[in-house]
Design goal:
Largest sheet: 16 strands, antiparallel, barrel
Number of strands: 25
Strand content: over 45%
CATH class: Mainly Beta
Helix content: 10-25%
Number of domains: 1
CATH topology: Porin
Number of helices: 6
CATH superfamily: Porin
Structural class: mainly beta
Shape: globular
């Protein structure tokens, strides 16, 4: 892990040296952008966006004993029923404004088909944002409600800053944590690590990085320099599924920026950050520790300007509560057995000794005002402490974007994916050999 931290510091210095002046880029201060409305915003404002998307994979089978089935990694989430699909991933309606110069509010409903609206494998739209920010105290704006908790950059970005259709695996598995019905009875698999087995009917979706709670946050400018912080105390659990929110959460992020120009949701800067989260999710009548932390930097310059460019690196570490999504769907046609039960249920590892870590690095370049090309590499090492269950995910992603307006664009990405099991067995080898590459296209349409 120390090597990644040292590497991120070296690249941060290089990025700072090569910067040149240019008007605009993506925002780095998500506390400002998402916490409060602009000073001149009206009392009541309506906005939103939709993201129609197409995903295409070959749907290659993997062998399980004497049977074969398409693994979930080759199917489109959250339903995991098809390998090629057209869908509306996100469809959001947002209300925000200023009640006065000290009080700002933001509410948003999610109506798309994604992990947030997939509750117990049934579609259920819901409130994804809902907070009020009070700016009476100098140096500490107080945000109350359903809040995007301080954490990794990919988890804090607004929709206009997404540069790839498919998120890095380390974000998807470590930070976009699925919740489980804590009142249900689960049995443990007779495999290394003794994970709990959790079926789809007991999965409660994700919170899309949001949690109910209270956050103190603010930012301070000295010329071109900016320091920002966010510290939150909240409740970890599923909001959409009702009374499953019953565990404590603490989270914090500190970031420093050098700003070249621009403001609001688009600016040019170099930013470095460090963040930490700790929660105590429950399963049955027992609580377990879950810690996530990370460090990263980004360099952004020239959004929607020819030769506009960006570079970002982030390292993420997790310990304690680590989940391994099911390898196959229960409707895959596999004959029920103890072995297939292990593979058609999520394997949840709860011990404090469990580890996972990963990183992603990405870059983008505007060839013209509207055409941007992107590249990303992401790496996720799950359960390196448990050689029998260790899995390593690697993905090279190539992306192309056409920006129609600053908030509306068309994206296409091709993802070269691999999965390895260092201590191989027949089933992991079969799944590893079957992993498909993926083509994904998406339009971000704002209103």
């Amino acid at each position: 892990m120390n090597d990644y931290y040292k590497y991120s510091r070296r690249v941060f210095i290089v990025a700072a040296v090569i910067t040149m002046s240019s008007p605009l880029a993506h925002a780095a201060n998500w506390f400002s952008v998402q916490g409060i409305s602009p000073a001149n915003a009206p009392i009541f404002g309506v906005s939103g966006f939709i993201e129609p998307s197409i995903y295409a994979m070959s749907g290659t089978d993997a062998i399980v004993g004497k049977q074969s089935a398409v693994p979930n990694i080759n199917r489109v989430a959250p339903n995991d029923t098809q390998s090629t699909m057209a869908t509306i991933v996100r469809a959001r309606l947002m209300l925000r404004g200023n009640l006065n110069k000290y009080i700002s509010y933001f509410f948003g409903g999610e109506f798309g088909s994604d992990g947030f609206t997939d509750i117990r494998k049934k579609y259920q739209p819901g409130l994804i944002d809902g907070h009020v920010t009070f700016s009476y105290i100098p140096g500490a704006r107080i945000e109350v409600g359903l809040i995007r908790a301080p954490s990794a950059e990919d988890a804090m970005q607004g929709f206009m800053a997404n540069n790839f259709v498919v998120l890095p695996t380390v974000i998807g598995q470590l930070m976009q944590q699925t919740f489980y019905d804590s009142a249900a009875n689960y049995h443990q698999a007779n495999i290394s690590g003794k994970p709990y087995l959790i079926g789809g009917s007991n999965t409660l979706g994700v919170n899309a990085y949001r949690y109910p709670g209270v956050q103190a946050m603010d930012w301070f400018r000295w010329g071109h320099w900016e320091l920002a912080y966010g510290a939150m105390v909240g409740i970890y659990g599923s909001v959409a599924a009702g009374n499953q929110s019953n565990s404590p959460l603490v989270a914090g992020r500190l970031q420093g920026s050098y700003i070249f120009g621009g403001k609001g949701p688009f600016r040019s800067d170099v930013t470095a950050w460090v963040w930490y989260q700790h929660a105590q999710p429950q399963l049955g009548d027992q609580s377990y520790g879950m810690t996530r932390d990370g460090i990263g930097f980004q360099y952004l310059q020239g959004y929607m300007h020819q030769w506009g460019r960006r570079l970002r690196f982030e390292y993420i570490h997790g310990s304690g509560w680590i989940s391994a999504p099911s390898a196959f769907s229960s409707n895959a046609g596999l004959t029920p057995s103890a072995a297939t039960s292990n593979l058609t249920n999520t394997q949840l590892y709860t011990g404090s000794n469990n580890k996972a870590n990963g990183y992603d690095i990405e870059a983008g370049l505007f060839f013209t005002k509207r055409i941007e090309a992107d590249i990303r590499y992401d790496y996720y090492d799950r359960l390196p402490n448990n050689p029998a269950q260790q899995r390593i995910f690697k993905t090279w992603a190539l992306g192309l974007q056409y920006h129609i307006t600053p908030l509306t664009k068309i994206m296409a990405g091709y993802y070269f994916r691999s999965l390895t099991a260092p201590l191989s067995s027949s089933v992991p080898d079969s799944i590893s050999n079957a992993v498909d590459n993926e083509l994904a296209m998406q339009a971000m349409i704002s209103f």
